[in-house]
Amino acid sequence: MTDATPEQIEPGLVRLLAPNPSPLTGPGTNSYLLGRDRLCVIDPGPDDPAHLSALLAGIDGRPVEAILVTHAHRDHSALAGALSQATGATVFGFGAATAGRSAVMQRLASAGLGGGEGLDLDFAPDETLQDGDQIALENSPLTALHLPGHMAGHLCFAWRDTVFSGDLVMGWSSTLISPPDGDLAAFRRSCARLRARAPRRLHPGHGDPVDDPTARIDWLIAHRAEREAQILHTLRAGPCDASDLTARLYADVPPALHPAARRNVLAHLVDLMERHLVVPSGGDLADARFSLT
């Protein structure tokens, strides 16, 4: 799928691709129209007039009961206000962009650890959702699942035997985890919880449907374990900061992606620090040099 042409991927489920391809969004953000006579929109996408027009064309005058946002990154949430104004639908989400941060991440943010890539600081849902809340939709309700990791307030939505997985599990790449918004320990727990549900299929925020969720989640968990092992192995040779580690571990990755890779490395270092496996030295944590304990 390369344009905003509606694509039916399940009975009663249509996907529209937002025109925002990039190294971090893959082919673009997936917006979903769920339902037949009465609709729910999942992840309206970036604030783009062409995408708004495509969504309204797909809605085709049918009532929209809810606009659900998996998380407050601009490529998922920024169009929510305009779409709500056009349709009269209520916007649901976990909360504001920084809602749900763990005590560890709140402490790091207070200490000055920067992040905030792509945060939609203007996002304010009309109604907030907690883990387990249900959203009525014709004969098939959705269940909100609070599955943080990529972002503290990240929601997935279970529908029948499938799950809309947002950016927790994507169809084209591993997930960016950038503290204090992202949390690697929470990501592992969320992946394990999603795997335990054994969904038939995942509908991700980016990329094609995931038809073998167990294999995909296992790969994501193994990928993080491998990266952790690489970091610990490198630190055995002496202290490094996140930039040093990124240059060594991502040598085969285009330099344009190194800033995002560095945030993933920092997420690992924060996780290792909280597990008392490494210790930082220096002032700002983002630029600190880490040593094995």
Automatic annotation (TrEMBL):
InterPro entries, alphabetized: LACTB2_WH, Metallo-B-lactamas, RibonucZ/Hydroxyglut_hydro, Sec-metab_biosynth-thioest, WH-like_DNA-bd_sf
CDD domains found in the cross-reference section: metallo-hydrolase-like_MBL-fold
SUPFAM superfamilies: Metallo-hydrolase/oxidoreductase (SSF56281)
Pfam families given in the database record: Lactamase_B, WHD_BLACT
Sequence ranges assigned to domain Metallo-beta-lactamase in this UniProt record: 28-206
Protein name (database record): Metallo-beta-lactamase family protein
